[in-house]
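Lab meeting, action items carried over

1. Structure of the three-component assembly. Owner: GW. Status: complete.
Input record:
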Amino acid sequence: MSQPETLNQAFELGYTYTRSTGPVIGRFLTALKNRKIVGIKASDSRVIVPPMEYDPDTAEELSEFVDVGEQGEIVSFAWVKEPRESHPMQVPFAWAMIKLDGADVPMVHCVAAAAESDIATGARVRAVWADETIGFITDIRCFELV
Amino acid sequence: MKDIAIVAYQQSDSVSDAGAVNEVELIMPVLARTFEQAGLNSAQDVDFVCSGSCDYLQGAAFAFVSGVDALGAVPPIKESHVEMDAAWALYESMLKIRMGHADSALIYGFGKSSPGDLPTVLSQQLDPYYLAPLWVDSISLAALQARLMLDKGLITERDMAEVVSRSRRNAMNNPHAQLSGDISVEDVLAEETFLSPLRKADCSPISDGASAMIIATVDQAKAWGLPYVVISGIDHCIETHNLGMRDLTDSVSTRMAANHAGMNAGKVDVAELYAPFSHQELILTRALGLDKETQVNPSGGVLAGNLMMASGLSRIGEVFNRIVKGEAQRGIAHATSGPCLQHNLVTVLEKGENA
Amino acid sequence: MSDEQDEITVINAPVYLKYNFTAGKAPARYLTQLKKGVLTGQRCPKCSAVYVPPRGSCASCGVATEEEVELSDKATVESFTIVSIPIPGNPIEPPFVVANLVLDGSNISLIHLLSECVNEDVHIGQRVQGVWNPESEWDYSMNNIRYFKPIDEPDVPVEKIGTLPVTGLEG
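Predicted assembly:
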C-alpha cells in the first residue's frame, strides 16, 4: 500500500449575491444613503431599528416608519481584542447592541473606542457615516463614543 | 401511536483538526460501530436514514451527498438530510416512523469545521441585510449575551467559571472529549479575557467529528432483543432572528419545547444541554427550572468538544448511555442552533424494559 | 449629495470565505500516485468493484476500501457530450468533448476531455488513451493527463463496458 502525503490547499469560496431589498429594507437602506436612520413601529408600538417587515410576535405586516436619532445608548458590548480578517475594523473595537434615540429595540453594530476601559454599558454613542454612502448597512461605518 | 426508542449510539473522538480525513472517512468508522452495537450489517437493515451536516463548515458543496458513500446505498435506500444539527434529523426520523413509513432509522451527524474559520462562517447564517454584511461572528454575539447577564446581576464571572471547571472535570470520564482536566474556578478566572466578557475557556472548542444513532419502534427494538431507551417526548421551538427583540437572558423557546415534550411529567435525573458558551448553560438550566436533583452535563457538554451538526444528537446519545448504564432512569437532552440559543430542541428519554 | 428619489431596491452582498482544504486519506493516496504518473483505484473487499478516483468506501456496499489497484491509462467511452457553448472560467474553446471514461482495471467511470478526434465520430464503446503532459509538469492533479485520444482498437460492446481488466481488451 502506498503512503500518501498530506495534501493541503488553501482556497476562497465566493458567493457574489445580489439581493432584492423589498420595500421595508429598501426604505431603511435608502435612508442610510441619505445619512438618516429610520425604524418601524411594531404591533405593540415599539420602534424597531433596523425595520422588520413583519412583527415577530403577531406576524402583522408592519408599515409605519419612524425617524430615529443617529445617537443612542449602549445596551451591551463585546470587546474584540483581535479582530478577524472579515471584521469591519482591524484595530481593537467593540460590537454593541445600541438603542438609538427614539427606538425601543437595540441594533447590533460596531463601536470604535481606543480601549475597553473607555466603553461601558449605558455609554452614549453616535453614528459615524462612511465617506460615500451607497445604501448598505456599512454606510454607518461604526459608532463612536459621544 | 407507536413508541419509539433508541437502541444504539456512537460518536467519534472530538478533535481540533481531523486532518487527512474526508467526510466518508469521518463517518464510516462511527457507522460501523453503531451497526455493530445494534447487531445490524448496514443501512440496508433500517427503513430510513437521515443525516445532519452543513457544507459551509468545510466549504465543500454537496459534502453531505459524498457522505452517502459511507452508507451502502445499493439497492437504493430511503435517505434524507437536514442542513442542521442531526438532532433535527432525529426529529425528522421520528416523524417518518410516527407516520407509519418506517419502523427503524439510522441518524448521523458530522462536521469538519477545521478547514474554515467557524465563527466567521457562522456569521453568514445571520440576517443577510443587516448583520451578515457586518460579519458579526458567533463568539461576539455570545459575548453580548453574556454581558447582558452580568450587567443585570443574573450571573457572575465566577458562576461562568464554575460551569467551565465542572465541564473539564466531568470530561475526564469522557473518552471522546477534546478538553478535559482538573481545572479549578480560580484557574479559569486567572485567564485573561478573550472576547470580553468571555474567556477562551467560556467558549466551546472548534472540533471535527461525527456521531450516529439507531432508533426503532419499541416493538422492533424488542424483536431485535436490544436494550432500549424510550423517547417519550420531543419538540423544538425557534425565536425571532432579530436579537434585539429577544430576551437574551432567558431561553423561552427551550422552556416551551420542554413543556411540549413533557419534561415535567417526572423527575429528571440527568440533563445534557447544548451550551456552546458557559453562560448559556446557566440560561438553559434556569429556563428549564433544573435543580440539584438533576445532574447537568455529566459528559462535560460541548465545552469539552463541539461537533457542529452532531453535538445536538450527541447530547441525546449521552443521556441514552447514562440510562442504559443504569445511572439514570429518566433524562432530557437539549440541542441548539443559531446565534445566542435561537432555536432549541428538547428530547425526553426514559428507561425501556431491557435497559 | 445623494438624490432623495433614488430608492434602493437591490444590494450587492458578496460573501467570500477562506478555507484550507486537506484531502482525505483515500484521495491523498490517489493524488500522491498520480503525481508519479500512476493511476490507481481502490477495490471493494465485498463486491470487488474498483473505484477511481477512490473516496475510501464502496458506495454500493458501504464498506471501507483499502486495497490499492494500479490502473491503465487506456479507457473506454461510456458516455459523452459535445460542449458547444463557452463555460465561464473555462479556458477551453468550444466545441469540445467531455466524456465518461472507464479506465481499464476499474469499474466506475471518471470524467475527462476527449481530443485529437473527430467530434462527430465519438461513440460509446470507443477505445481511448490518456495523453500525458511532460513529466516535469506533473502535479497532484488529473490535469497531468491533458486529454484522452482515440486509439486503434476495436470497440467494446456496451454490456462489456466497465468490466475490462487492467490488461485491456486482450485480458
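2. GW to write a short summary for the group page. Key points so far: Chain C touches chain A through 32 residues (CB under 8 Å). The helical segments of chain C are 25-35.
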